[in-house]
Structures are given as structure tokens and as C-alpha cells.
User: Fold these one by one.
Assistant:
Number 1:
Amino acid sequence: MTTTLLDLDRLRRLAPPPEIPLEPGHPARWPAVEATLGTTLPDDYKEFVTAYGTGMFDDFLFVFTPFAVDSDGNLLCQRDVTPPPAYPGPDSLLPVGRTQNGDQIFWSTEGEPDGWPVVALASSSTEPERHELGLVPFLAWLLGGTLATAVFPPELGEGVHLFTPG
């Protein structure tokens, strides 16, 4: 699985990033984050955090970042609040986002980080939904209405989207 710049460009067209991202990533800060986690993180995720920073899509879908001051949105804090198989560990789940409904988004940490698929879990379910996509293509397909999913409401794939810092 590879992510191209087209995926990030598509996401930017669907939901433009803020002109000045809140708590964005910076190349010099990633090594400390990855040392704390004990793994590198997917490149598409680092590009996303650099472009978007901390915030929410449509006041509904929040992506965790390691630079968020609020622990509820901080990737490093949220890794410890994961259902089994919790990270770290082989083929574990590392939380990367959630919705206002309590639906959760994880990476399945099998293999190389740039190949980690996204796993979604509805708040009312114990059956995860696996998507063989990196985070940025997952978000672009979800917001573009082309991702088959039972976890997220269909209206999430409709219309113009707003990413709000915070």
C-alpha cells in the first residue's frame, strides 16, 4: 500500500486545511515522538499532521496528533486507551482518531508503518471494519463518499467539508 501526493491533494480539495494549523507536526519533532512510541509512523500521517495540525472534520471526526496539548486528542496519551490487542505489540491496534459518536479509528500495526491499514470500530459494535488504506486515503475516500463502510454515517461522504482547528 502506498500513498501518493494525489491522496493528500484530494483530501485538501474535499476539506481544505487551515491556513495556520494548530499544533502541527515539524520534521525536527518526529524523532522524539517515534522514540516514545518505539516505532516510526506512516509518512502520510506525518504529512497530514503537518498540513492540518490538531482539529476536526465537520465537527465530527477527530484525528489524534502527538503534538496536541489536550490529552483527549493526543496520540501518545490515547495509545493507552485501546481495546485489545493494544499497542505496543505485534499486530496490535494503535488509536489514531474517533468521532463524536464514540466510533474509533486505529492503525493495525502489522508490517511496515507505511503499509498499516486502518481499522474502524463503531461505538455500538465489537466487530472491527478493516480498510486496506493508509490514513490519508482512508480520510479522502470517506469524505469523498467512495468508501464502503458501516461504521460512519453516509452523510459524512456528502457535500463540502470543514476542518476546524482545535
Number 2:
Amino acid sequence: MGDWPIGDISKITTAYSNPATSLSFTIDCAQDNTKGAWAEVISATPFDVSGIILSFVRPYATGEMDCLIDIGTGANPNEVAIISDLLYTHSTAATPAYSYFVPISIPKGTRISARGQCSDTAYNRNVMASILLISGTFQSQQPCMIVDTYGATAADSGGTSVDPGGSANTKGSYSQLSASIARATKGIAIGIGNQGNTGRTTAMALLDIAVGGAGSENVVISDLFVHLSALEGTPPFTYPFIPISIPAGSRIAARAQCSITDATDRLFDVVLYCFG
């Protein structure tokens, strides 16, 4: 397991808000599955940051849309993504909110920006983002300095498809998220996507995360609940942070089981975020 003892929270601030309109930061996710321009969230962090809570929602809009969102640091035009391809899925019938907790160190005085891409070309593509900066939450032997993303698919602004298979309530085949992770992990987070399914049949699914070569996978996190909803998409949408140690070079894969066997409606996307 990861080495993340909880300490006292000394400071929390919202990186951006607009009291005049009661709105948070707006990310204009570029169309055609291509990342748009960086937009500044905060010019300089007011303290040393040890974690970020990110929440995404798409209000006042209809239509299915998958998005991949980057959080970056650095002066314009030299921003560098420190968190890449955070998955957000909007459902036709609901306005889901995705939340990610990212335990990452960012020095005081750092400029933070955001950018995104989306699969939608017909509707409002703006995504509202609440970005909380946290200081003093963790004491770790080695602070988390980097986030690696596995399974994101730029071509459709989604993730890697997981197919529970044609037998109800039985685990299907593995979908590879990474053939070899770049560095050892202190923990992972998971984003779950709807694949732009506008007519999904409501169903229940259980998701496994496994480590090991093809045919010899070892399940390290089992039976994460996923609600495949005709109204909401795929709540709980994210598993924000799970402290677990996985060695560098490991292959990581996902599999699932589902209560239905429909060839389309049983499918969902997965993106994995590894904290090192």
C-alpha cells in the first residue's frame, strides 16, 4: 500500500471563482478531439501545494460528450502538463460531476493553467472546473511529484474500452491500460467514461484492476462498483485516489463483469492515473 499518512490541513483555497456569476473556472474544450489553448487558472499559487481536488461539470448543456482535460504549470506560452487527460463524460439526460483528488506537490508562486479537448461538435463544449489547492495534508517519505496517464484515447477524447463479455455476471477479458508503467506508484485514480452512449440500458458492473503479463494477471483492486445508467452515464464516474504500490515496468489491465449482455450497453471506458 502507499505511504500516505493523513496530517492536518493547514490551508485550502479555490484557485478561481467568479462571485458575480456564482461560477467556477470555465475550460473551453476544443472540438474534433484536439487539445485547445491553455487558459490561466491562477497566476501564482499562494502557498506550497501538496494536493489538488478537481471537479468538472457541464451545466446548461445537452448532448453526449467525452472530454480529456490537462492541468499545466509554467508561464505562457511554455506551459507543461503535470496532469494529463483527466476523463470527463457528459450524459444526454443528466449533468454529472466528476471529482479527482491528486496528491501532487506544486511550489508556491507557480502559475496553473488548464486546457481540454472533446468529442462534441454540435453543442456547448464549455466545462466548468472547481480547482481546490490544498497545503499540509500529507506527510510522505517522498512527495508525489508526477502523474502518469494510461488508457486515454485522444482520437475520441475517451478512454480504453472494457468489455465485460457476453456472459452476464461473469468477468470478461482483460483490456490493457499499460504494457509497462514508467515509474513505481504511490497510488492510482480511475476515470470511467460513457463512450458517448445516448441510449444506454441501465445495468450494474464490477471493475477489476490487475497487474501482470497477459494470461497471468494478478487482481490488485477488485469489484469496484460501476452503475451504467440510462439517465446519468456511468456513476460514480471516478475513483479519486487509491493508495497502492505498483512497481515500475508493471503491465496494468482492467476487466469487468456486468448484469447485462447487450453488445453496446455493457461497454464503458477506463483511464488510469498513476501517482509517482
Number 3:
Amino acid sequence: MQIAHDGAVAIVSKNHYLVKSATELSHFTVRWEGSHWICDCPTGKGSGICQHKYAVSFMRNMAKLKYAENDIRCPRCDCPSSLMTRKGLRQNKYGIAQTYGCKGCGYRFVHRPGFGKMRSNPTAIVASLDLYFKGLSLAKISSHLKEFYNVEVTSVTVYNWIRKYVRLIKEYTGTLTPSVSGKWHADETQVKINGRQAYLWNLMDSDTRFLIAKLLSFNRRSEEAQLLLENGLNRVGKEPQNLITDRLKSYDAAVKEKRATGRINSMSHIAGGLKEGRNNRLERMHGTVKERTKTLRGLDNFESAVSFTDGLEIFYNYVRPHSALDDRTPAVAAGMEFLSGNPWLDLIQKAAKKNKRS
């Protein structure tokens, strides 16, 4: 972030950047090779990770936000984009935004889909979402916004942004149907909610790593296992060939109940302990959850815990690329639309557009 902030990244083209060396009077070349970034520094060659790649990624993600103008409609008379004209830029303490004029009614407005009536710079909001689910605390995000964007907000404001936009995005992503394989994994991990023991249940596709369904509860009974499985069946619209779980008896009881009601027919239930290594994919994902929840020092209440786990699900499925998927996200691997270099912004805009239609 410091490299990008210091202006050490020079743009040659859309997929070609020069990053100034911190120790020598030279530059490193960072280039997009169709599926991943490469850098000619010793660390960043091939698929290696280096600070120069991170600097380019950060600069691209947090650059001035641009919006698709073909989706613009006048908020007063609903005229389409063909009747809009640009009327210059409007700048205030919250940032720079394009102003448009409607030929139909003469109304002037700023087009910021997903950020209507929000007083703060959209860049700061998107940055807050990205940094929070990458592991920064609310206090550190608040400090970062003041230092890099000259936006002074409290930790409470940042938290309210996160809850607002996680809820908006979750409503949108819940309508999408992933294309998954016939092999699913189910497992649960422990989380603390206001000092009380709780369980986060997850259902994941084996091939795409897509998190199909999740559930937060205070119990590990067959009722919770049934609800997790039901949510997954509803999301995908079909039953898998195999369901792999640990030896928790709740899963076995849930599968038997679903068979008795005709909800599943031919699915095989494979129950195996950790020693068999059958649920390694979910175990790795749960390790990420535990690492992130350590910095939270527990969740205040059940509602905030649901919001936080919803955000983690969005981050895991749609934002964070996976090396095992050739640096794609599970959503892309599951046949969903590819998101731009700033997936949080893309998700907010798509969610706001669908919310407006509905």
C-alpha cells in the first residue's frame, strides 16, 4: 500500500506496469499473462508473490471508481442513458464524481450506483470491505482511511458500512445458482458469540471449492444438519452423488430423514474422520475462519455473527482467488460471471441494480 501511495507504480498499459525499486535506481516490470501476474524481480517470477504485484493490485482496486454509463437512468423522469449528457465533475470532501444532465427534464444528478445517499467517498467504502475481510481491524481501517484517503470516520461508521453492503450483496448472491460437481463436503467449526460456544456449518463443492451453504447455530443436532443440507439442495436445485462428512452422527440422521421424505434418493453418504483426509478442503477453509476470528476476539451477538459469516462467504466465493483454481475465484470456477479488478465494487453495483428492479 505504501508503494502505491508513494506513486512508485507507473502505468505503461492496461496490463503492463513499472514499479520503482526501493533499493536501486531501476524499475521492475509487472505484466498480466492472461491468467496471472508476473514480475521480473527475483521473488515474483512465475506465480511467486512479491510486493510489486501487490502494489499494482492495490492501485488498480483502489483507483478512481468508474461506472457503466449504459445503465444510467434519470432518477427524476427515468429517461435512458441515450438522453444523458455529461456536465463535468463534482468535487467535495467525499471525492470526485461525474455529473450528468437529463435532456428529458433538465435534471442534474451524480450517478453512483449502490452508493446513493451515502455521504462518504465510495472508494473508502469499497476499501473498508476489502481490508476488513482480509484481516484488518476496524480501528486500523479507520486509521488507514484517514492516512490514505483523507476520510475521517469512526470504527462504528466503518462497521455500519460493512453490515449495510454485506446485506445488500448477500441478497443478490443468494439469487445466483452455481454450477457444481456431484461431490460435496460438509463440516462444522467452533466460533465464539459473546463468550458462548457456537458452530459454523459449511457445505462446499469439491471441484470448484464453492461454498454452497452455511449455517450458524448453538447446537450440533440433526435438525441443524438437515437445515444445512436443505439449504444446499435449494441453492443448487439437485442432489449430489456423494456427500462427505466427518463421523458426527447428526449428519447420518439428517441424511436418513431426507431419504425418508424423498428429498434425496441416490446420494451416497461417506462419513470419515480427519485421518482419512476426506474433508481437507473444508478444514483449510475453517483454518482461515479461525485465523480471522482471532482478531475479532469474539462476536458481540448472533446478528453480528451472521453478518460477519455472510461477509466471509462473499469474500471466499467471489473476491479471493484460489491458487488451486488457477487463481480464479470459486464463483468463476462454478460458471458465474467474471468480476472486474474490483470485485467488491462489481458486486455492489450488480446488487444495487437488481435491488432497484425488484
Number 4:
Amino acid sequence: MAGESRPLGRVPAEGLFVAGALAQYVGASLAVLLFAVVPASGVAWLRVLAAAGALAAWRRPWETRWSGRALGLAAGFGIVLAAMNLTFYLAIDRLPLGTAVAIEFCGPIAVATLGSRTRRDAAALGLAVLGVLLLADVHLAGAPLGVGLALAAGGFWALYIVLGHRLAMEPGLRPRDGLAAGMGIGALAFAPFLVASAGPAFAAPWRLGACLLVGLLSSVVPYGLDQLAMTRLPRARFALLLSILPATAAIVGAVVLGQLPGPAELAGIGLVVAASAMRSHTPQP
């Protein structure tokens, strides 16, 4: 591993983060293109399944001694993670990628606000809500379900942050074992409901390969690069970099999918980016 990571060690930490963000949203754009032949729910499930397989092979969570509490946390975390992916993919099937990501961002901003209760974070949440209202006003007439699904994805993202933090603090667990186990549990939990919608992916090898590639690009690659970046960046700096994600999604959506945002959408995405950059980034107990 040390030999493999040495070339990446020469890349600035900010560059690793940006590369991870690009991989994540290129994967999402590829998913949108696949929706023409595989339903969004099926692509979402295969994404979770592919990521679960890759992480399980890497971390081997079955070698960990799990307490009942830790296993319960991992199960809840994984189900929330799978639900977040599902609602997000259903949202980007109806909304432009940048718009859906900006609306979804209300989740982590709300968690930061509730965790600190400072005026700065309250103002950041107000800016984010204003941006989301602006985006919703553009799309409510044509895609009200898409707006609702993006908001639901934001809610699951907030739960993901809370449960992920508790899982990471659980004594006796190796780092990232909770993610590997949770991803696998989430894939199994949603299989009875989503495996049928994934059926068209098995009709052609290229479809299945593309769906699995979505999982690697959207989950495994950005996760691995983020882990490297976090070890070399102060927490506040890393949290600040997260604010560029809605803008990155909008740029990738425009380039790959031709989803050019209008003035109102640009303003809404800009408000969410400003809100994320504005929120405080000091660690909370």
C-alpha cells in the first residue's frame, strides 16, 4: 500500500479532494445516462452493492469482533446510507445534478447549525434555505417530486453524519470497518425491494459493468481520496472544501449532461455554496 500511495503523496491534498469530487459527480452523471436503460432505483442499488463489495474486500469487516450495539449502529448507518443514495438518484432522474446536490446540502448545513447554535451557523442555514427556496421555485411546477426527493436525500445525509460519527466513536472498531459493514447491510436490506429494478442491467454485460463503475466512481474512489486528503488537511480546511461540491456538481452536469443552469438556478446554487463556506468548522464535542 505504501508503494501505491507514494505517487498520490506528491499530489496536493486539495487536488486529491477535487479529484474525488470530480469522480463522484462524473459517476452520478454516468448514472443519469444509464437511467435510459436501467431504472434509477436499480442503478442506485447496484452502486451500493458495488461499493459494498469493494469495501468488504478491502476491510474484511467479518474479522472484527462486533458488539451488539456496534452491529446495530452499523446496520442503521448502512440503511440510511442506502436510502440516501436511492433518494438522491431518484432526484437526479428528475432534476439537474447541480440543483439536486445544492438542495441535498441543506442536510449537513442543518447538522452543523444544530450542533453549534452560533449566530454564524444560523445565518448560514438561513442562506441555504433561501438558496433551496430559489431552486425549488424554479422546479416545483415541473418536478415537485424531484424537489421532495432531494430534500429527503438531505435529511438522510444529516442522519448519515450523526450515525457515522457515533459509529466512528464506537470502541473496539477498526477505522472504516463500520462503513464496509454498513454498506453491505444496506445493500442486503434494500435487495428485496430494488433487485427487480436492477434486472435490466443484467441484460447486457456493458450495462452491468457501467452500473458497477458508477459505484466505484461515486463511492469508493472519492472515499479513498477523501481519506488521504483528510490526513493532510486541517479539519476546518477540509470542511471548507466541502462547500465547492454543489458548484462542482453543476459544472460536471453542464459538461457531461448539457444541464446548463439558468440565472435563478445559478443564484440558488451560489447561496448554498456561500452558506456551506460560511458555517463554522470548529469541532463539536
